[in-house]
Amino acid sequence: MSLTRDPRQAASPPPAGAREPRRTPRRRERQGPAYVFLSPWILGVVLLTLAPMAVSLYLSFTDYNLFDAPKWVGLRNYTDMFFEDPRYWRSVGTTLIFVVVAVPLKLALALGVAMLLKNMRSGKGFYRSAFYAPSLLGASMSIALVWRALYNDGGTVDDLLSRIGIHTGGWVADPDLSVFVVALLAVWQFGAPMVIFLAGLQQIPGDLYEAAALDGAGRWRQFVSVTLPMLSPVLFFNLVLETIQSFQVFTPAFAISGGKGGPADSTMFYTLYLYERGFSASHMGYASAMAWALLLGIGAVTVVLFRTSRSWVFYANEGA
């Protein structure tokens, strides 16, 4: 009888319920360099994100004017904001209109251009870069000012519409149209979701389209029955990102309205009103309360999107 142990027995897993061996000092030493390399990120999160958030949460319960020491007022900022400030709710409504208009148009345009680029045989790289460029430039103050000049009274758009008999007097000066100027600027920056859609379209197997064509499905039917279901995870990803970004729009609204939210508060977006209360009126406590209300609102909308996604987002490994 041999006394030599089978090496497979030495490597066998411990029995159920047995405690895992404690980490040896050598193993902890190997983890040390990982924390060293992670330390810049950890310090950045603590000092630049968590600490400012904690200070902002504290200031939201105070009366703070940027010059004197904060005075604790409890929930007064929140009660004033929700029940005694009509401009606050006007800014909420304006922002919701912008989100409802800009996000679907932006995603539809991005998907349409991505499908055109997918079928191109030559020049795809050039056009992809050209369509992506507005996403890099559109957030700048200079582009927003140019956009304001285009849609102002006597601007290029007003002049072109006047030649065909449509006299608007400039979209920027019209309370009913000014918010759509900002929305069109956001839609023009469709490059980022377009690139993501293009990557998703290239992952759809061509066999699915061939099978649908054999069954007599036309292009529209293939789009509805093949493209959209297979692309739904990418569509959901873009929808969440664009919705979150749209709630935080600031630079275009500031530039197009001259920082005043006019005319008649028609471009007084949430973040612009937050800026006005915090820095123009020196009510930083009130502005901090608005910031936390915005954070909770975006969180609630994101939760709703995730809950509703269960009925229309399909993944390839579902049911496997």
Automatic annotation (TrEMBL):
It is found in: Cell membrane. CDD domains: TM_PBP2. It is a multi-pass membrane protein. It comes from the Bacteria. The chain crosses the membrane at residues 35-61, 96-117, 129-150, 177-201, 222-241, 284-306. One of its GO terms (cellular component) is plasma membrane. This is ABC transporter permease. It comes from Streptomyces scopuliridis RB72.
